[in-house]
User: What shape does this take?
Amino acid sequence: MNVCIHASFLPHDDPDASLAFYRDVLGFEVRDDVGYDGMRWITVGPAGQPGTSIVLQPPAADPGITDAERVTIAEMMAKGTYTGILLATDDLDGFFTRVQAGGAEVIQEPVEQPFGVRDCAFRDPAGNMIRVQELR
Assistant: This one.
């Protein structure tokens, strides 16, 4: 039996800004863009990897979320502490330069970590933490 990660979900509070960031700055392909009831889900993914996607979704689309939880989610997104994702590249410096030129909020420039990886960090337009490790 094979199991793989097919999609991860990240919240967005501005679908157009998120789309532009993931498509134009990160270079991801747009795989789907679906609207429903005033909300929008955008599926993106790295070129050449059709089996792996990120779904950019309204942060509180689940009808089971209370108004108080919606406020908490919005506050955590604004602080950049709600969620994040870890990416990897074989050219960390080039990737960092591209993302920085795209206007992303830089959290950490490329650095060798004491635990053995070289990485950097930035936030997407919704405040999600994106860490990027260098493949070795």
Notes: The helical segments are 15-25, 67-79, 92-101. DSSP finds three helices and eight strands in the chain. The chain has a mean pLDDT of 94. The longest helix spans residues 67-79.
